[in-house]
Automatic annotation (TrEMBL):
InterPro entries: EF-hand-dom_pair, EF_Hand_1_Ca_BS, EF_hand_dom. It holds the Pfam family EF-hand_7. Residues 155-190 form the EF-hand domain. It comes from the Eukaryota. Keywords: Calcium, Metal-binding, Repeat. This is EF-hand domain-containing protein. PANTHER family: PROTEIN PHOSPATASE 3 REGULATORY SUBUNIT B ALPHA ISOFORM TYPE 1 (PTHR45942). GO terms for molecular function: calcium ion binding. The keyword Lipid metabolism does not apply.
């Protein structure tokens, strides 16, 4: 038989095909990925599952969190939890394969609008449709730490005012998605203005090579050739 993955034996290759055959076709229709690309993404997922023992069927939340902390270099546990809540229906359960593919569908999206909507949803944990001053203050507090409490508080206060001056264009004391989108469309580097939500270049390059879909990553060629 033709092996899907040479690192897996014949039994595991057959098992993978039996488990994910229908899902591969389904996700290829609902994401930007081809069937081969979905298959490659799910092969990585399948190897996480195999690490949990012969009877395991899903990736654990601990594995998911460690992936963000170690590979993606995203250290804010609340942001990781919010990301998980956006791709899965039950935070109390393990990470299912559909959620795994959804995650990479967003991470590898080339459309800024898709990334903006996802990022704003992460920040807007209360699902109110806007970011209040309290929400922004809480995020900004993580940006500055130190022994000089007065200096830290001053830096936080200054940053808070800068952000609201930048994003709260109607001066109503809250940042709507529309206001956020207008600013980020003009200045994409402000996409993650309240904390990192996407893997850095190194993390995304590793993902791309592991899943064999480097063409989906919209990075400057030099950033890959230098690896």
């Amino acid at each position: 038989m033709n092996k899907l993955d040479s690192t897996l034996d014949d039994v595991q290759n057959t098992r993978f095909s039996n488990i994910y055959h229908d899902l591969v076709k389904q996700m290829a229709k609902t994401t930007q990925f081809s069937e081969i690309e979905v298959q490659s993404i799910l092969l990585v997922y399948h190897k996480f599952v195999l690490a949990n023992g012969p009877k395991a069927k899903t990736m654990t939340k601990k594995q998911f969190n460690n992936l963000f902390l170690v590979l993606f270099k995203i250290y804010d546990l609340q942001i990781i939890e919010r990301i998980l809540s956006l791709i899965t229906s039950d935070l109390n359960k393990d990470v299912v394969p559909v959620a795994w593919v959804k995650l990479f569908s967003v991470f590898m999206a080339n459309k800024l609008e898709q990334k903006m909507k996802f990022t704003f949803q992460i920040y807007n944990a209360a699902n109110t449709g806007y970011l209040t001053r309290d929400v922004v203050t809480f995020a900004v507090e993580k940006f500055f730490t130190g022994e000089d409490e007065d200096e830290v508080n001053e830096l936080r206060s200054d940053m808070l005012e800068v952000l609201f001056k930048k994003f709260d264009t109607d001066r109503d004391g809250a940042i709507s998605y529309e206001e956020y989108a207008v600013v980020v469309t003009k200045e994409p580097m402000l996409l993650e203005f309240l904390g990192q939500c996407f893997p850095n270049v190194d993390g995304m390059t590793v993902i791309a090579y592991c899943t064999n879909i480097l063409s989906k990553i919209n990075f400057p060629k030099s950033s890959i050739d230098d690896k």
